[in-house]
Write the structure tokens for this entry.
Amino acid sequence: METKNVGGRDRTLRAVLAVVLAIAALVAFNQGNRAGGALAGVGAIGLAINALTCFCGLNAALGIDTTSNADSSEP
């Protein structure tokens, strides 16, 4: 299994952006813009997967790990 490299605020931001892109995709499809809707939909799915699995391939390739920056209530 892949090592987790997405956490804290990064994970929350990805989840919020996934929701925003999903809404944008629905609006674009509603207006007949298939290309824009598909692009926003793919972006939404990608960010949602990143947020749910706590893993990002681009982060891994660039050596970025935001799990150490995770907000924690434990001392």
